[in-house]
Design a protein that fits this description.
single chain; 399 residues; alpha/beta; 17 helices; elongated; binds guanosine-5'-diphosphate; binds magnesium ion
Length: 399
C-alpha cells in the first residue's frame, strides 16, 4: 500500500519538477516544514491538487526513500535540482562616445584645472605672479612638476607670439597644449584580440579599494557590448565576497566566472580561467587579482606567480594597473611598486568623478611610460570610458 502511494507521489513529483511547477525546492527543503498555506503554487486548499501533492512528500523524502528500495536514485535527483533561474541579461551601452556622455562627471577637475587656467590666462597682464598661479593650479591638480614646467614654458612662448588674446584664441591654444601634454599619439586600445589565438588574456592589478573588481566587471560589459564573449577569473581568493562581487558583474551580462576556494591559490584560479576560456571558445579572459600591499615581497610573489602560471598556456596580452585618481601622489608610489612586479601595459584611472586632480592622468603616464587606456567616472555599470585625450581636455576646459 505504502509502496503504491509512494510510487504515485514520486511520479507526481517528477512530473511537477519537469513541468516547472516546483520553484525553489532546495530552499524549502532546508527550512522547517512550511504551513500548508505557504506553497507558492496557487491551489484551492480543500481539494488535492497536482501542486499540493508535489509539495508534501518533499518534506519527508528520507523516510519514504529509505523504506522502499528504489531501483535507482534518478527520480529524487530530479527533484533535488533547483530549476535554473534564468538571470536577466543586460545589454550594456555602446562604448563609443562614453567620455563625452560622462564629461560632466569631471566637473571638479573642470573647475579647478580647466576653468582655472583659462581665467588666469585671460588676465590682462600676464605677470610673474600670474604665471606662478598657473603653475600652482597645475601642481594642485596633480599634473606633476616636470610636465607643469613644460606646459608653462610652452604657454608663455605662445602667448607672447599671440600678442593680443581673444578668449577663443586662448581656449584653442590651451586645448592644443593640454592635448599634447596628455599625449595624442599613444595607442590606448585595450589589447583583447591577439591575432593568432583565442582568447585574449587581460590581467587587472592594483591596490585594494582602487576599483579593480568594479573595473573588471565594467570592462566585461564593454567587451560584451562589442560582441565579444568573456570569461572572468576571480583570482582574488582572499575573500569569498570578492569572487561573489565579480560573479555578480558577470551574471549581469552573461559572462561565466571561474572561481576557487576562499584562501586558495590565485594562480591556479587564473590558470583554470584561461583553460576554461579556451575550452569555451571565449574571446577574452579577464583576471581580477588581489591587491594586498602589506608586504611588497608577498605581492611580488603572488602577482608574478599568477602571470607566470597563466603564461604556461598563452601570453598575457594586457596588464591593466588600476589607480584611484583621488589618492594623488600615493597612486604614483603604487604605480612604481606594481611596475616592478609585472609589466604594466595600460593604466585605468578610477574615481575621476570624485576629484579635482584630473592632472594625475599626465603624471601617471609619465611615471610609468604607459598610456591611460580607460577611466572610471562613477559607480554605475557603464561608467567606464575609453580614454580619449581630446574629449578629456574638452571636458576640462568646458565648451
Ligand atoms: N565614484 C567612483 N567609484 C568607483 C569607481 N570605480 C570603483 N569605484 C568604487 O570603489 C569601491 C572599491 O571598488 P572595488 O572594485 O571593490 O575595488 P578593488 O578592491 O580594487 O577590487 C567600490 O565602492 C566601487 O563602487 C569610479 O570610477 N568612480
Ligand atoms: Mg576586488
Amino acid at each position: 500500500m505504502d509502496i503504491v502511494i509512494l510510487a504515485v507521489v514520486i511520479a507526481v513529483v517528477v512530473l511537477g519538477a519537469l513541468g516547472g511547477l516546483i520553484v525553489g525546492s532546495r530552499r524549502k527543503k532546508q527550512l522547517p516544514p512550511p504551513p500548508p498555506a505557504a506553497p507558492d503554487i496557487t491551489a484551492p486548499p480543500a481539494e488535492p491538487h497536482v501542486g499540493d501533492e508535489a509539495e508534501t512528500p518533499r518534506e519527508e523524502p528520507r523516510r519514504t526513500i529509505e523504506e522502499v528500495d528504489l531501483p535507482d536514485g534518478s527520480a529524487p535527483v530530479v527533484v533535488e535540482e533547483p530549476p535554473a533561474e534564468a538571470p536577466q541579461i543586460e545589454i550594456p551601452e555602446p562604448t563609443a562616445g562614453r567620455l563625452v556622455r560622462l564629461r560632466t562627471r569631471l566637473s571638479r577637475s573642470q573647475n579647478a584645472l580647466g576653468k582655472g587656467l583659462l581665467t588666469l590666462l585671460s588676465r590682462e597682464h600676464l605677470d610673474e605672479d600670474t604665471w606662478e598661479e598657473i603653475e600652482d593650479t597645475l601642481l594642485t591638480a596633480d599634473v606633476g612638476v616636470q610636465p607643469t614646467q613644460e606646459l608653462v614654458e610652452r604657454l608663455r612662448e605662445r602667448v607672447k607670439v599671440l600678442g593680443t588674446r581673444t578668449p577663443e584664441e586662448l581656449r584653442t591654444l590651451l586645448r592644443e597644449e593640454l592635448v599634447t601634454l596628455v599625449g595624442r599619439d599613444l595607442d590606448r586600445a585595450v589589447k583583447t584580440e591577439p591575432e593568432d589565438r583565442k582568447p585574449g588574456i587581460v590581467m587587472v592589478v592594483g591596490v585594494n579599494g582602487t576599483g579593480k573588481t568594479t573595473t573588471t566587471g565594467k570592462l566585461a560589459r564593454v567587451l560584451v557590448a562589442d560582441g565579444q564573449s568573456v570569461v572572468l577569473g576571480a583570482a582574488d581568493t582572499f575573500r569569498a565576497a570578492a569572487a561573489d562581487q565579480l560573479q555578480t558583474w558577470g551574471e549581469r551580462v552573461g559572462a561565466h566566472t571561474v572561481r576557487g576556494p576562499e584562501g586558495g591559490d590565485p594562480a591556479s584560479v587564473a590558470f583554470d580561467a584561461v583553460k576554461e576560456g579556451k575550452e569555451m571558445g571565449a574571446n577574452v579572459v579577464l583576471i581580477d587579482t588581489a591587491g594586498r600591499l602589506h608586504t611588497k615581497t608577498g605581492l611580488m610573489d603572488e602577482l608574478g606567480k599568477v602571470k607566470r602560471v597563466v603564461e604556461k598556456q598563452a601570453p598575457v596580452d594586457e596588464v591593466l594597473l588600476v589607480l584611484d585618481a583621488t589618492t594623488g601622489q600615493n597612486g604614483l608610489v603604487q604605480a612604481r611598486v606594481f611596475s616592478e612586479v609585472v609589466d604594466i601595459t595600460g593604466i585605468v584611472l578610477t574615481k575621476l568623478d570624485g576629484t579635482a586632480k584630473g592632472g594625475i592622468v599626465v603624471a601617471v603616464q609619465r611615471e610609468l611610460g604607459v598610456p591611460v587606456k580607460l577611466v572610471g567616472l562613477g559607480e554605475g555599470a557603464d561608467d567606464l570610458a575609453p580614454f580619449e585625450p581630446e574629449a578629456f581636455v574638452d571636458a576640462l576646459i568646458g565648451e
